[in-house]
Design a protein that fits this description.
Helix content is 49%, strand content 16%. The protein is of the alpha+beta class.
Amino acid sequence: MEAAPFFTTSELKEFKSKYRKLLHDMYPYLEPEDLSKTKLLIRQMVDKNCFSRDRNEINGLLRNLDTALIATREIGLRRAPILALLLYRPVMKGAISIEEIEKMYDSDVTHIINCLLRTSDLYARNVAIDTENFRRLLLSFAEDMRVILIMIADRVCLMRRGKQIKSEEDRVQLAMEASYLYAPLSHRLGLYKIKSELEDLTLKYTDRSTFDYIKKKLNETKASRDKYIREFIAPVEEKLRNAGLNFDIKGRVKSIHSIWNKLKKQKVEFESIYDLFAIRIVLDTPLDKERSDCWQVYSIITDMFQPNPNRLKDWISIPKSNGYESLHITVMGPQNKWVEVQIRTKRMDEIAERGFAAHWKYKGIKSESGLDEFMNNVREALENKNSTPSDLIKDFKMNLYSDEIYVFTPKGELIQLRKGATILDFAFAIHTKLGSKCVSAKVNNRNVPIKHQLNSGDQVDIITSPSQTPKRDWLNYVTTSKAKLKIKQALREQAAQSVDMAKELLQRRFKNRKIDEDESTLMRLIKKKGFKTVTDFYLDIAEERLDINNVIDEYHELEKRDKEMQDHSTTRSASEYVAPTPVEEISGKEDVLVIDRNLSGIEYKLAKCCTPIYGDEVFGFVSTQGIKIHKMDCPNAREMFSRFGYRIVKARWSGKSNTGYPATLRVIGRDDIAIVTNISSVISKENGVTLRSLNIDTVDGLFQGTFTVLVKDNVSLNALVKKISTVKGVKQISRLNS
């Protein structure tokens, strides 16, 4: 059978067109032999099937070429990242070694390839962002920003090819991933055009009816809108020319996604939204005259039209931390309509369209301190071994879409913070020690508490005390990820010390009173007292909220009662059985699960909605309380996969819990006390099975009992179910999800 051609006729035409464009863009930046070497190498790799089609039949080489064109034309990447992008697949598939690539090119190309290899699960396939992939992505990002720019270009490529993705579920998952991570990242890196496109395509794939409605409305109003823009621009152009300025002026319709946000936020009809477009004035002016010329245009516009003083945004005097510079004003135009006007220079417009990050490192322009600080925060979060994966994701994302304020130190140094930042945020931004010892501050020479919210232009002088230490309620007073990270770190260290001291104290008191400590009895007492974790119990002892002598007395009483029950075991009526105690969640510290592929030691909990046990097919879900492990047939699984696919992580069992796994069985049978006794007897005789609690209800000659047991795995649970089903009078038995 004849092999299928590598390109279809239409693909070949597309390839030739895009190849010529890429060659034209890249030619000035390539080394003399780069072109011939790369062409020969790609031909060889095509023969070795390194650019095979994916499950959606998208040609691998065409996808890489498309991504390279986006990366260079729309983002501004140059030689090393583009070569790495084109040569990454052959290295991943083992057709050529990284050492061979370095001999042919240089270490900068292989450095980026190595970073891409670490994100291969995300780059090579359409998969949702899971926790470990996210961590690997951030590690590569923190090492070299060009990697994330390649990833963004690739996601734009895939989103544009959305029609080629066969599965509706895959398309929605890709859109959610773009919305969840890549659009906010594009925003943070100044790629506003790409950010808007990703948001629009996300809306298109997840809510097509809304997307089509807004698009149709924009088309219907296009003629009248264009006419209004011409009427507004004509007199402005004349005034600017008379002032001797070189400029370009145009009207720009706002993105469908931003209009959708306005419809939701303002709760109005489409016709009621006044700012559907913005006028952009782009000046062609020397670097040393940029500011003065922009403010001259501002003066001309506000002389012609009444400005709204509350809508002035000056990002020329103090640019955004991602490099964005522009003046935004809103004026009352003809027909009493508000019009947004953006004023910037050609240099500022290039940065606004293609992202300041594209200039960094490989264009010789120094990065803004705010972007450096952002990168440092990412590295710090990754280096903190105590932070959970969900904390990492949450802390990283919280700074992606954030407005900024600008405040000053007593010496006049400018500090950029996210809007809503407090005194504590400011203190931790300067230094961890300063934040940890902060007790109050002077803002503009006025004393304020640590939770005081700062405004742009404030001058802040921090007041410290050597006896001050971070408190838990401080987490409610900060908004920046750096401050939250440092406070949590300090609290963990304090808690660990307190817990160790409380444990040692309790053991000494047990010894002094000649009581042998039984861990299972102590755990039951802790649960009985309502503590969610053992750490909380010991912290209450350490902070003297619990009297240690009372704890020992209660322990002794519980131990005595257990002994009496064992000595005087009698059959009780169904109505005398007590309700079950809450089931303990298995903690990730026991290391009985491997998250994703080979990662152990990650914090997780077994979900209460389906109570998985060893042997069940499971998956992980990144929730606000950390990673929760669910059964594949969990009643909530379908919704989690469809709506929150980007939070799903792979999980598999690597060992069994030392304490066993809780499972709840529902038994229905004839209303006979002897049946309950016989079931309890079967459970007690079963090796490796412990009865934790039971609850009995009787009605119309039938009893319904829920038995919570600790088992080693699903094999022993299934064996137990079989034995209970043979008890005389049992009519039905099933395992409950919770």
